[in-house]
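Example S7 (structure tokens).
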């Protein structure tokens, strides 16, 4: 499941990746307060710092540090914050 992701101008770091999961830390900072993606695999969004809104397939979720939300594969994801936030993205392979 090795896959290169485009994070644009966002501060990010790939924490680890193997055949089971990829973990990325994404920073929403001044100048890049939103992030949009549509992943071909299931994902989990975990807010590790700050507050943000997550729109997943048209449904809005308000997140605070420590909150997590599941993103089904091929569902549009939009993250938005008004200040700064750090987000961990866990990308999992599609079930067979």
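Recovered sequence:
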């Amino acid at each position: 499941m090795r896959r290169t992701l485009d994070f644009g101008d966002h501060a990010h770091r790939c924490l680890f990746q193997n055949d089971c999961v990829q973990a990325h830390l994404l920073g929403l900072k001044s100048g890049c307060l939103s992030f949009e993606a549509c992943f071909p695999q299931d994902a989990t969004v975990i807010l590790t710092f700050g507050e943000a809104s997550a729109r997943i397939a048209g449904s809005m979720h308000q997140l605070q540090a420590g909150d997590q939300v599941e993103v089904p594969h091929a569902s549009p994801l939009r993250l938005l914050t008004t200040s700064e936030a750090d987000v961990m993205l866990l990308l999992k392979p599609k079930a067979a």
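Notes on this example. The chain has a mean pLDDT of 86.
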